[in-house]
Design goal:
With about 180 residues, the protein is an alpha/beta fold. It has one domain: HUPs (Rossmann fold, 3-Layer(aba) Sandwich), CATH 3.40.50.620.
Amino acid sequence: MILRFVAGLFLIWIFGFVWFAASTPGPAGDIETDAIVVATGEAGRIQRGIEVLDRGLAKEMLVSGVNNDVTPAEFAAEFGVSRRHMNCCVDLGFDATDTRSNATEITQWVMASKHKTLRLVTSDWHMRRAESELNRLLPGSIVVVSDALPTRFRMSTVVIEYHKLLASEFTALTGL
């Protein structure tokens, strides 16, 4: 009986992993939203957010999880953000240190700014967990558009992210 249970759990894990690894989310394209929210991490995320902002597909952007030592001027210089965009349209969030706190920081910013549609920019392997954490906190009336940056397949990264997603979902289900 226990052997069948363990075998069943293993099969569920295997099928879930195959689904996770084979069907990563992709870029959002030219969809317009009220705002862009970028979860810092892997290279390319911030550049993608700035590109979307520059193309006029959103009016504002929050970069969540910026290192406390980074000043707005340093950020602008590092990523080539114009003074005009820094003054009107780019907010830096310094409170987040992980995916869950990114969701909290983003939710607080969205509620204060009253945006109704968001473009969430993160890596393909990170998108499901980031979007899940964010959707748990945001009101259901706010639409989140996934804009996942394609990354090179690395088995170690995919295994780690799959387990982080499972842990996140387990925590949400059990309230732990």
